[in-house]
């Protein structure tokens, strides 16, 4: 054995205690760490010929790299939709690395049983008791898997096997959606269906929610040919929700697969005041839920739910003499793109076991309240205006005066430069804008005050 490996093995408990202490220092210091870090590229170091051991590697990381990392795990990182990691989720993630299970099959470990239990818990949160699920890397892969199952369903309707004969056997495919996420286009490209298969359907006035009557017209125009409908449970810019129940009811008249992208909006189910927004979610054929957003587990983790796991097996079957054939409860190697898989479920299991439904209801409701508070605070200054109501956990706003692309870009950069908060730019209804998204378990009203003050102060210097 290499001498440094032998030394680290002999000293492993003490070394892990050192890593734990360093991690605790980072986590407890998040409030003081700059939320965003403007990067100056550095030349990469050469690969060491002889390693220096874990202790020295940790020291080098703390000196060269860790100070340049952002405070994205902290309470005032409002870019994209980025959760943190609860204490229990961190513990689960560490144990995932320690146990190092390949959550592919149940031949040698209870890992996939834990994953199934965790999926059941998550399904209960969203009213998806009749669906079956599997862990994947994130919302993009979750949407990819859901649309892959939809592709198999299209083949079933047309009497062909896409898994066997290829996507060309389908002929033209139509995907209908009001405001699809960018990952839908990416997934369709990877699936061979093509980005051009998406037919955008009119949305309601001043909304991102699809006009269900126009959707019915689009389906009717297909003259009975089956299609895929992608509905939204929470759009990126304004967290708008399609009327899922009304869309599902259209299946009485038209043949289509209903895929719901509920990456973070599905968590509205945990708030009694907002649960109506996801009414009808259980009627979906497949559902995307991202967990490293509002469940606050470490990157990367998401779940794909579906009613048709038989079609999922058809798409992702991994057949070999040394592998277990799929049964009524197929191994996950037959359900997702990966064969070898990290046990992502363990971090989710830990945090759900530790905090339960009530703990997550608190996080969701607190984040929703913080988003509303920021929206009110920004508009009160007179420097900003909201571009839509704060429906859930995102405030979408712009400059009240001359919101040109240049001025909004300068504002986003100035906000990042404060180190107090981080927001991301967007365009809504043709207007350059900014999104502030709340999904971190640590965030409180005090953080909103600090973030709002930083945003307002940054606007003072915009010419």
UniProtKB/TrEMBL annotation:
Gene3D superfamilies: Aspartate Aminotransferase, domain 1 (3.90.1150.10), Type I PLP-dependent aspartate aminotransferase-like (Major domain) (3.40.640.10). Keywords: Aminotransferase, Decarboxylase, Lyase, Pyridoxal phosphate, Transferase. InterPro entries: Aromatic_deC, PyrdxlP-dep_de-COase, PyrdxlP-dep_Trfase, PyrdxlP-dep_Trfase_major, PyrdxlP-dep_Trfase_small, Pyridoxal-P_BS. One of its GO terms (molecular function) is transaminase activity. Signal peptide: none annotated. Pfam families: Pyridoxal_deC (PF00282). Its cofactor is pyridoxal 5'-phosphate. It comes from the Bacteria. Belongs to the group II decarboxylase family. This is Aspartate aminotransferase family protein.
């Amino acid at each position: 054995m290499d001498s440094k490996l032998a030394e680290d093995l002999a000293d492993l408990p003490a070394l892990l205690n050192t890593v734990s202490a360093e991690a605790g220092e980072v986590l407890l210091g998040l409030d003081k760490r700059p939320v965003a870090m403007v990067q100056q590229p550095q030349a990469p170091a050469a690969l060491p010929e002889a390693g220096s051991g874990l202790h020295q590697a940790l020291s080098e990381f703390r000196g060269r790299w860790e100070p340049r990392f952002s405070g994205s795990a902290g309470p005032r990182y409002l870019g994209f939709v980025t959760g943190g990691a609860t204490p229990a989720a961190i513990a689960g993630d560490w144990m995932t690395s320690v146990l190092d299970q390949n959550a592919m099959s149940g031949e040698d470990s209870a890992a996939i049983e834990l994953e199934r239990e965790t999926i059941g818990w998550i399904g209960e949160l969203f009213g998806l008791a009749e669906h079956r699920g599997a862990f994947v890397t994130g919302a993009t892969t979750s949407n990819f898997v859901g649309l892959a199952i939809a592709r198999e369903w299209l083949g079933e309707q047309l009497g062909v096997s896409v898994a066997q004969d290829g996507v060309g056997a389908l002929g033209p495919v139509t995907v209908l959606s009001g405001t699809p996420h960018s990952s839908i286009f990416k997934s369709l490209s990877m699936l061979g269906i093509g980005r051009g298969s998406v037919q955008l359907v009119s949305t309601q006035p001043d909304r991102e929610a699809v006009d269900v009557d126009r959707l019915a017209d689009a389906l009717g125009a297909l003259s009975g040919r089956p299609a895929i409908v992608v509905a939204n449970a929470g759009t990126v810019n304004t967290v708008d929700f399609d009327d899922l129940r009304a869309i599902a009811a259209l299946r009485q008249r038209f043949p289509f697969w209903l895929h719901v992208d509920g990456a973070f909006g599905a968590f509205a189910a945990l708030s009694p005041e907002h649960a109506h927004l996801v009414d009808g979610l259980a009627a979906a054929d497949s559902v995307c839920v991202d967990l490293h957003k509002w469940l606050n587990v470490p990157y990367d983790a998401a779940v794909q739910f579906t009613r048709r796991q038989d079609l999922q097996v058809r798409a992702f079957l991994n057949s070999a003499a040394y592998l277990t054939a799929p049964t009524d409860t197929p191994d996950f190697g037959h359900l997702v793109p990966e064969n070898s898989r990290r046990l992502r479920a363990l971090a989710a299991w830990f945090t759900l076991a530790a905090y339960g439904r009530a703990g997550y209801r608190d996080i969701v409701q607190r984040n929703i309240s913080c988003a509303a508070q920021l929206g009110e605070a920004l508009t009160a200054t007179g420097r900003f205006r909201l571009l839509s109501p704060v429906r859930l956990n995102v405030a979408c706003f712009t400059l009240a005066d001359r919101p040109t692309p240049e001025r909004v870009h300068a504002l986003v950069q100035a906000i990042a430069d404060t180190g107090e908060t981080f927001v991301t730019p967007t365009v809504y209804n043709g207007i350059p804008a900014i999104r502030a998204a709340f999904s971190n378990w640590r965030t409180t009203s005090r953080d909103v005050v600090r973030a709002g003050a930083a945003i307002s102060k940054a606007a003072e210097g915009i010419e």
